[in-house]
Known about the structure:
302 residues, alpha/beta, Spore Coat Polysaccharide Biosynthesis Protein SpsA, Chain A, 2 domains, two-stranded antiparallel sheet, globular
Amino acid sequence: MSGGAVDVAALVVTYNSEGHVAELLDSLPAALDGLSYSVVVVDNGSADGTLALLDRRDDCVVVRSSNDGYAAGINRAVRSSPPAGALLVLNPDATVDPGAVPLMLDVLRKPGIGVVAPRVREADGSLSPTLRRGPTMGRVGGLSFTGLAAFTERIEDPAEYEAEHEVDWAVGAILLIDRECYDALGGLDESYFLYSEETDFSLRARDQGWATVYTPAPGAMHVGGGSGESATTHTMKIVNRVRLYRRRTDDTRAWVFFVLTVLTEVRRGVLGHRKSWPTVRALLRPSARPPMLGASEAFLPR
């Protein structure tokens, strides 16, 4: 690590991450091989042994915070880091392969690229399908089983992961972001609290001429579900999808998207997805929405 300006500032937000974050931090020296870097971990109020674990280490700066959301944690980590040309956003339940970050940085330095996503694998070594298409009316209805791009946000085809190419957005477990791009967008949008912040960032970046690019050479692993998904987090995920779509379109289309979202969650509930029923209630009753979203005033979430 370095005490002055660095090539890469690694940013981690923890929340009850005792079981994973040590492996991530252990992977970083080799992953950043040859680069100067810093590591800042913002802890969003963990109640397990995460802070005790972090306090025993000397390879990161630890910032204690209340839980005001993932995006807020990343933004706080940026403010607590030294000047850097690139920002490495990492989930605590990820690890990065040796030499991966220099390969990502080579791609990021190409003109017009604002975000770089590597090839990610699951804990069992299989491909983790982290690439996504942008939200559209056709993709709201839970018809991903068709495999058709018009109806599918999640990109499953292994062939799409073989070559470097531009994508709409990628899951934010491991991303390298150009600092100039980050500053131009004013950082991550903290109003989402959790979920959709990386989608919003890549789409806003594209609006301003910055591409998100997937590259297969650097590798990483993401366990997934390090903090678990509850009915509340599922509701946040779905409500935020509606909010994101509304912010990027007109009210008429947003209302249709909202209705289709409700119908999709009802369908999922009928098929046995129990977390969908609290989500349906929250969609139809603004007061039942997670208060941290600040989306309880209007029927159509803002």
